[in-house]
Amino acid sequence: MRYRRAGVPGASYFFTVNLAERSRSLLVDHADVLRAVIREVQSRYPFRIDAMVVLLDHLHAIWTLPKNDKDFSTRWMLIKIGFSRRLLAGERRNRSRAGKGERGIWQRRFWEHLIRDEKDYERHVDYIHYNPVKHGYVTRPVDWPHSSIHRFIAQGIVGPDWADGDRHEASNEYGER
Fold this sequence. Notes:
Elements: E1 12-18, H1 26-29, H2 31-44, E2 48-54, E3 58-64, H3 72-85, H4 95-100, E4 111-114, H5 118-134, H6 149-154, H7 170-173
């Protein structure tokens, strides 16, 4: 099956990528492996990570691709493969995956959204940073260790008390549906 995906060279995209077994916590358990794989893929296929949060069973990210490049699918494929190859086997695999010799770590596809404008970008960044609160992992975005909010704080873009005590508007308006 061929999926229609947005394909604008040099654009920014929001992604949601899920584990196949949503009850597992492989992404935070092996966050160092995920980071290393992403860096390796970035060195071969450059892209900028504008914002990102890694949760137990899924992640959200905004990437900006180089000026003449629209191939985010290859990057995600390489990240998924690289991460999977570095983990010991043991996950459940359905008959289809087993027959194709595939691991069962990731959902086969991912969700992407082409960022339309500055407001859309800001709302998706907010959604990413508020997501650990939305899922009940922490009460304040700054308390989640696997988030680009720490870079945003260090750069003075937001304060450490960003969204404290608020049910942030981006928590339900944006992201995957």
